[in-house]
TrEMBL record:
Keywords, comma-separated and alphabetical: Motor protein, Muscle protein, Myosin, Repeat
A Gene Ontology molecular function term of the record: calcium ion binding
Keyword Repeat in annotation: yes
Presence of keyword Repeat: yes
Source organism (scientific name): Dendroctonus ponderosae
Name of the protein: Myosin light chain alkali
Superkingdom: Eukaryota
SUPFAM superfamilies, alphabetized: EF-hand
Gene designation per UniProt: 109543935
GO cellular component terms given for this protein: muscle myosin complex
InterPro entries: CALM/Myosin/TropC-like, EF-hand-dom_pair, EF_hand_dom
Subunit note: Myosin is a hexamer of 2 heavy chains and 4 light chains.
Domain EF-hand: 82-117
Length: 161
């Protein structure tokens, strides 16, 4: 089944398995999400469980032969994922003045409370990498944020204080 991936994709997958599983290239199924994200797939937690991820560490191990069909399935499903334009349309709902700005606090609230909720630490990291400065009224330009988040623009390089 490894022939279903391009050689470069297979090399990337093998590297991800080495990172998460060591030299044996066998991962705990709780690491399936990060491995899939390394392959440019972004499945939901529910979808990962459907594909064989366990909720608790140590319940199940996966090797390359187990993961290739999962990655192929996810790559074939990618057309159903949201894209930059979809996210722009969503955030326009929070753009009260229709000027490309929204409240940073609303963006944070959405990420902490809607769909697959992020943790405070994950939101902080995302904002550090992708969110520009707020203006005096707490507004941010959401387009540059989305462009960085969707990897259309490079992430910000903020210096630690």
């Amino acid at each position: 089944m490894t022939d279903a991936l391009k050689p470069k994709e297979l090399e990337c997958l093998e590297f991800a398995l080495e990172v998460y599983g060591g030299n044996e290239k066998i991962i705990d199924s709780t690491d399936l999400g990060p491995v899939c994200r390394a392959m440019n797939c972004n499945p939901s937690l529910e979808r990962l469980e459907q594909l064989g991820a366990a909720k608790k560490k140590g319940e199940k191990q996966l090797k390359l032969a187990d993961i290739v069909p999962i990655v192929v399935t996810l790559k074939n499903e990618r057309k159903d994922e949201g894209c930059y334009e979809d996210f722009v349309e969503c955030l326009k709902l929070y753009d009260k003045n229709e000027d490309g700005n929204m409240m940073a606090a609303e963006l944070s609230h959405m990420m902490l409370s809607l769909a697959e909720k992020l943790t405070d630490a994950e939101v902080d990291e995302l904002f550090e990498d992708c969110l520009g400065e707020e203006d005096d009224e707490g507004q941010i330009k959401y387009d540059p944020f989305l462009r960085r988040m969707c990897e259309l623009d490079p992430p910000l390089k903020k210096k630690k204080k």
